[in-house]
Design goal:
The complex is a heterodimer of chains A (about 425) and B (about 600).
Chain A (H helix, E strand, L loop, with lengths): L1 H7 L4 H22 L14 H21 L3 H24 L1 E3 L2 E7 L2 E3 L1 H18 L8 H19 L4 H6 L3 H7 L4 H19 L3 H18 L4 H27 L2 H11 L9 H12 L12 H4 L11 H33 L4 H25 L17 H19 L10
Antiparallel strand pairs in A: 1-2, 2-3
Chain B lengths: L3 H27 L2 H10 E6 L6 E2 L5 E13 L9 H8 L3 H14 L5 E7 L1 H8 L8 E10 L6 H4 L2 E3 L2 H6 L10 E3 L2 H5 L1 H5 L3 E7 L5 E4 L15 E3 L3 H10 L5 E7 L4 E8 L12 H10 L8 H4 L8 H12 L26 H7 L2 H12 L7 H17 L22 H8 L6 H4 L13 H13 L2 E3 L4 E4 L13 E3 L6 H16 L11 E7 L7 E8 L6 E7 L8 H15 L5 H9 L4
Parallel strand pairs in B: 2-10
Antiparallel strand pairs in B: 1-8, 2-3, 3-4, 3-5, 6-7, 8-9, 10-14, 11-12, 11-18, 13-15, 16-17, 17-18
Helix pairs in contact in B: 10-21, 13-15, 14-20
Classes of the chains: A mainly alpha (about 425), B alpha+beta (about 600).
Keywords (chain A): Cell membrane, Cell shape, Cell wall biogenesis/degradation, Glycosyltransferase, Membrane, Peptidoglycan synthesis, Transferase, Transmembrane, Transmembrane helix
Subcellular location (chain A): Membrane
Protein name (chain A): Cell wall polymerase
């Protein structure tokens, strides 16, 4: 009991309250997304998604309780075993899983099925934390950089085999954590530059303009910095590589599967195919955009009720919020997410062990990626990527995986004073 | 070492939040186009088409009504049937029809209705009505087509059809939509605004598959349709029907007017067609056939065909002469056939004799006296002044321009002006000898059968007329028709001048149109012959009766039927008897007219 008192007082109630708020708002939105006026059922009705989700929320609460009463050292000790278990599960998923629309995402028996790729996120986070906890681990060295990369890439490759590109992409979010942990900044500058150049290359018809622009920027950079030989040479090489990249990108995109090509092209021109690939984004924007400042009111969203947005209870759940609660509702939810994320950064920074801090940043990374990409995709800022909105989207695996991910950190955080670790 | 990086991350998180909220603000608050798109998605605007107004005849019999037709619709997803044989028996269809219809509907959409059985009549519908409840996924939609209980008066009633692109363009108030039906001809066209009613609108919500999801905002924006106004026609259905029977197999027109009101009792254009064929789905094909028909059934002869008035015009000449003082009942002229041809009759004749014998030289000389008034010493100038003054007097008889009845495309015929002759012969290069044909209603002068009937009404009324019209009341209210139709038009000839005319016309019956005489109904009439350069002359007759209290004025044109005394006078006489007595006492004459084929 004494020990319990000790850590219960340290529990971060702010993040728990935000979690409860998000799950509750999410649950009401799931009901709105499936609501049918002419066949109205109670929000608790188990034959509809909101009733089902309530059962899953109940299960999530049990998981929270189990995590909170467990020994905090358990996660440190079990980290590599958990990682191993989920990697194994991912590896066998293509063989024992159930195929839906050409993807094999879930394993299980009968109606109880889970998506290993969702749970592998926290397992990978624990494994990264465990590896990086070692005193010798230094991200400025290529050896350790490659170790971290390997831990991330194993699940990525296995998930790509399912294939589920969206979920695989999420694992690259761990680079946010690696940034905090000292990964050299030049990688990020290079990556962001590449992303910017890619977007420009895809968005601008004539690559020649872009090539001139790159040359201009490189010239300015050379003139501004110190004029050492190696620096000038390396800038010139980078410039040439980038121009080559812009030209090869169009070719590479044309080699992608058609549905991925379309998802990219629709981002630049949503009217390209409003009834086909553009349908999701167009309808999603219509639903959200028609919400106005205050929204149409709960259960009053016509686009929501009448199924104009596909996947609305799962990946496009934000549409329901946008339509029925308007900008104000969107503002509240985005504020909740940002508050939670910033709170988690602050919590991560106050950890006494590197294990907890790395894990904390992993939580921030995964949640931030999901939150930003999911909402960006519903409003046409990012190509359609099939990833859920944390705590909101319908589905057991994602809710449980995010819950476990978050609460392991809340648990670790509540024991922060008991932990003695070497900080780097 | 990494102290700055947490701060960078926090700023990045906040920045992402701001970017998302900015973009959301742009599409949610700053741009209202999404709201409109959402409504276009989910709200369907359904037009509730009003019930088009009915048309009654003058006695209250229905001329035009709306016949409901029922389509049995099927929603494949909801439809289920256990006993197929029984189903087919109830709905009176074959099993193949059911399977075919179901498959076709399924192919179109499993959740949207498609027609299973089309155009079910009211009686058939009554049989299946009670069984509908046993079969989910079936329901009935109603639409109506114009129907005519008696297949008569096609050209007067007109027809409705889909609105044309040009009409849509002209519809500046945007009442009509593509695919709407509008009156295109006849009364349907002229009284379109009265007949059409007011459209209602229903807003209903549909889901992504187009399935009905109830009314929008509880019907707050819905409006009910308002039925069109009912029209009471001046047409006497029985008379119209009888006239069409008499004109069967002939080409021509009959126009009968009630002289005291200008109400058109019958307006027959022969050959005609059954107005029922220009309704519903067969409109297009039947219209094309009628349009190609060489006998031109779509040509509304009473108001669109023009002929020279011929001898009948001599009455107008007599009246103008009397009013001008150029003629008196005692004015006598010799039948000088060196001036213009005539037939055998005593000579010289006074005015009465001239009318009775239809003497051409008499009017040649009388007309010269009307035209050459010696107001100018220049004979050319004198003729020009005389013609124009004379023309004004003729126009007062409702000639030389459309009368303005309540139908579109009425032709006005023509009475030549001095400008006309100036153009043809050159100014100052024509005189009385150029235009004398006008004296006997020939030459450059054209009238429509309607104008001729109106002349008969003027003679009956002794000097006035009401503009002929086809509708006497809107929703039973006579004051709602155009006031123009209730305004008396004087022709500018004193009533007493008509006494002689009426007597001569009554007398003339026994001369040129003996067949027209009825023992106990005194008819005043005048035959005419419209010259036809292409073949046999057209037979023309105008009359009114009874002479002392005229109830009907009539003009009959039978094309290619020779002189007016034969076909036209007989037809007019039968029409008069039918209208006044209500029955025909001379079956032999009826037989004679029905047998006559002059095409």
């Amino acid at each position: 009991m004494r020990q319990d008192d000790l850590y219960i007082n340290k529990i971060d109630w702010i993040s728990i309250l935000i979690y409860v708020a998000l799950v509750t708002i999410g649950w009401f939105n799931i009901y709105a997304a499936v609501f049918d006026e002419q066949n109205a059922k109670s929000i608790f009705d188990l034959s509809i998604n909101s009733g089902q989700q309530l059962v899953r929320i109940g299960a999530a609460l049990i998981m929270i309780l189990l995590i909170m009463v467990a020994d905090y050292r358990l996660f440190d000790n079990l980290s590599l075993i958990l990682y191993g278990i989920f990697i194994l599960l991912l590896a066998v998923t293509p063989f024992i899983g159930k195929e839906v629309n050409g993807q094999i995402l879930t394993v299980g028996f009968g109606s109880i099925r889970i998506q290993p790729a969702e749970f592998a996120k926290f397992a990978t986070a624990l494994a990264l934390a465990k590896f990086m906890e070692r005193p010798s681990f230094d991200l400025s060295q290529v050896k350790y950089q490659l170790q971290a990369l390997a831990i991330i890439m194993v699940p990525v490759i296995l998930i790509m085999l399912q294939p589920d590109t969206g979920t695989a992409m999420v694992y690259f979010a761990f680079f946010i954590m690696l940034y905090r942990e000292g990964m050299p900044q030049r990688y990020y500058v290079l990556a962001l530059t590449l992303i910017a150049v890619s977007l420009l290359a895809l968005g601008i018809e004539n690559n020649l303009y872009l090539a001139f622009a790159i040359l201009a920027v490189i010239t300015i950079l050379i003139l501004l910095g110190k004029k050492s030989f190696t620096r000038i040479i390396s800038f010139i090489v980078i410039g040439i590589l980038m121009i080559g990249y812009t030209y090869s990108l169009d070719y590479a995109v044309s080699k992608l599967p058609q549905h991925q090509q379309n998802r990219i092209m629709v981002l630049f021109n949503p009217d390209l195919d409003p009834l086909g690939v553009g349908w999701n984004v167009t309808q999603s924007k219509i639903a959200i955009g028609s919400g106005g400042f205050l929204g149409k009111g709960y259960l009053e969203g016509t686009q929501t009720k009448f199924d104009f947005v596909p996947e609305q209870h799962t990946d496009f759940i934000f549409c329901t919020l946008g339509e029925e609660f308007g900008w104000v509702g969107s503002f509240v939810v985005i504020l909740l997410f940002c508050t939670l994320l910033i709170r988690l950064v602050i919590m991560a920074e106050r950890q006494k062990t590197r294990f907890s801090r790395v894990y904390g940043y992993c939580v921030v990374s995964i949640l931030l990626f999901h939150f930003a990409i999911n909402i960006a995709m519903t409003i046409g800022l990012f190509p359609v990527v099939g990833i859920p909105l944390p705590f909101f989207s319908y589905g057991g695996s994602s809710l449980w995986a995010f819950t476990i991910l978050l609460f392991i950190f809340i648990k670790l955080d509540s024991h922060r004073v008991q932990m003695l670790g070497r900080m780097k | 070492m990494n102290d700055k990086r947490p701060i960078v991350l926090i700023i990045a998180i906040a920045l992402i939040g701001i970017i998302l909220l900015t973009k959301l603000f742009l599409i949610q608050v700053a741009d209202d186009s999404f709201l409109k798109k959402a409504e276009r998605n989910a709200v369907q605007r359904l037009v509730d088409h009003p019930y088009r107004g009915l048309v009654y005849d003058r006695t209250g019999k229905i001329l035009v009504y709306n016949n409901p037709l029922f389509d049995l619709m099927i929603i494949p997803k909801e439809f289920s049937v256990q006993d197929t044989a029984r189903f087919c028996e109830i709905f009176n269809i074959s099993k193949e029809h059911l399977i075919e219809g179901y498959t076709a509907a399924r192919k179109y959409s499993s959740v949207k209705p498609s027609p299973l059985i089309k155009q079910i009549s009211t009686t058939e519908f009554a049989k299946i009505q009670d069984f509908l409840i046993d079969y989910p996924g079936l329901f009935v939609t109603t639409r109506s087509v114009r129907s005519y209980p008696q297949p008569v008066a096609a050209s007067a009633l007109g027809y409705i059809g889909e609105i044309s692109a040009r009409q849509l363009e002209r519809d500046t108030v945007k009442y009509y939509r593509q695919g709407d039906f509008v009156g295109l001809a006849g009364l349907e066209g002229f009284y379109e605004k009265e007949l059409r009613g007011v459209k209602g609108v229903k807003y209903k919500m549909v889901n992504v598959r187009g399935v009905d999801k109830g009314s929008f905002k509880n019907g707050e924006y819905d409006t009910a349709s308002v039925a069109g106004h009912n029209l009471t026609s001046t047409i006497d259905l029985d008379l119209q029907q009888y006239g069409e029977k008499l004109m069967g197999g002939k080409v021509g027109s009959v126009v009968a007017i009630e002289p005291k009101t200008g109400e058109i009792l019958a307006m027959i254009s022969a050959p005609t067609y059954d107005p029922n064929i220009l309704t519903g789905s067969q409109f297009g094909a039947n219209y094309m056939n009628l349009n190609r028909d060489e006998s031109k059934p779509l040509f509304n002869r009473p108001i669109m065909a023009t002929y020279p008035p011929g001898s009948i015009f001599k009455i107008v000449q007599s009246l103008i002469g009397l009013q001008m003082g150029v003629l008196t009942p005692n004015t006598t002229y010799a039948c000088n056939r060196s001036l213009v041809a005539c037939h055998n009759h005593p000579s010289p004749v006074n005015l009465f004799g001239a009318i009775r014998n239809s003497c051409n030289p008499y009017y040649h000389q009388a007309y010269r006296a009307m035209i050459n008034r010696e107001v100018s010493s220049n004979t050319f100038k004198d003729t020009q002044i005389g013609l124009d003054q004379w023309r004004d007097k003729v126009l007062a008889f409702g000639l030389g321009g459309p009368l303005g009845l309540d139908m579109n495309n009425e032709k006005g015929g023509s009475i030549p002006t001095s400008n006309y002759y100036d153009r043809v012969y050159g100014q100052g290069r024509w005189r009385y000898s150029t235009i004398y044909s006008l004296s006997i209603g020939q030459g450059e002068m054209m009238v429509t059968p309607l104008q001729m009937a109106n002349l008969a009404a003027i003679f009956a009324n002794k000097g006035y007329y009401y503009t002929p019209h086809l509708i006497k009341a809107i929703d039973g209210d006579a004051t709602r028709i155009n006031p123009e139709y209730r305004t008396k038009k004087e022709v500018g000839v004193d009533a007493h001048h008509f006494d002689l005319i009426q007597d001569a016309m009554a007398e003339a019956i026994y001369g040129t149109a003996a067949r027209a005489a009825i023992s106990d109904i005194q008819i005043a009439g005048k035959t005419g012959t419209a010259q036809n350069p292409h073949g046999e002359d057209h037979s023309v007759f105008i009359a009114f009766a009874p002479k002392d209290d005229p109830k009907i004025a009539i003009a009959v044109y039978v094309e290619n039927a020779g002189w007016g005394g034969r076909a036209a006078a007989s037809t007019a006489s039968l029409m008069i008897e039918k209208y006044i007595r209500g029955e025909i006492t001379r079956p032999a004459l009826e037989e004679y007219v029905l047998a006559g084929k002059f095409m």
